[in-house]
Amino acid sequence: MPKSKSARSSPSASPSAASAEKLKVAIIGTGGISGTHAKSVKACADLDMVGSCDIISEKAEKAAADRGGRAYTNAEEMLDKEKPDLVLLCTPQMARLDPIRFCAERRVPIFIEKPPADTLDRAHEIEAILKKHPVIHSVGFMCRYLKIVERALRLIKDHKLIMMRQYYFCPMALPEDFKRIPRFYYKKELSGGLVVDQAIHFLDLVRYVTASEAAEIQAFGNNLQHPKEPEFSSDETVTINLRMKNQVVVSHTHTWAYPKWQSEVELIAVGAHLRINLFAGSFKGEVDGVQVEYSKEDNGYLTELQAIVQAAREKSMAPIRSDFPDAVKSFAVTLAINRSLESGERLVPES
Ligand SMILES: NC(=O)c1ccc[n+]([C@@H]2O[C@H](COP(=O)([O-])OP(=O)(O)OC[C@H]3O[C@@H](n4cnc5c(N)ncnc54)[C@H](O)[C@@H]3O)[C@@H](O)[C@H]2O)c1
Asked: Residue 277 and residue 169: Cα distance in Å, rounded?
């Protein structure tokens, strides 16, 4: 997405009817999130799952048996044999560079899960690969594709935004989830922890909604539910303040120590305020003195898939709301937040 393209310009994500021919889709990394994307693929009559690749052969085989197509443990072999029209990259962020290079070198469009990489140096290496081998691609910031977000932004497009107040609460630090969820999420040295892996969705949304970059950041955190230890080096509860270059101020609170999955984003503008419930797919508020309320079945994962399918068919990045260089800017914000958590200082992100 070009830097200047703000959320308020509402790019279209509708699937194209340009071609009736089915697109061949392959997945690299067949863990938890790949299941969500495989369901979206199944829901699209114009897509055909042709391959599943995982370094763990049993996982690749199970995925292929459940979802269709053949199983592989070598991504290059899958690309060369199946010749997919689109790859969904669902590996952990520590394993992004090679699969992106394999796809880019073969000019295969690629959907890349967030966060874009595990370190800023690696993110810049990937950027260089995508510059050398330009290919249709998208990074999985699905909040940008939510219909409730789109609708809310349309409603307040003529109202000057003043503040965003948002939170995301979930039970990932509670014993049951800690047992069930893959280890890398909890290891800050691998995934970047709560901020880089999960809060990134909301910090990316802030950049998208405000159409501005962070000028200053300050964050505080604690681990009062699950103290830090080698298996849990992530921060568990954080509060983050941002001042954007256009003066909008933002407060994001995030905890893994809450018994339910819950999240809201509140937009406060001159003459309008809206409170968006991301899990319920609804918002409520007031615009120019009129009460507004909206609720819609909303599947951002499906809409973001439809956007890259459209992009792949039309050989155009126009439907994509988050390209790799833009995603790296959100990633840089989260790294600055992690530095602030460690130092307590007010910082500016480095990109
Ligand atoms: N957008 C979202 O809402 C969302 C939600 C959950 C996870 N994610 C992201 O998706 C990614 C994967 O998360 P997950 O929960 O599915 O993890 P997971 O551990 O369940 O699955 C990852 C899979 O990738 C495989 N893998 C690792 N290296 C590989 C390689 N080089 N080639 C092929 N396969 C490889 C692993 O064996 C594993 O099966 C993470 O980056 C995570 O942040 C995004």
From this structure: 12
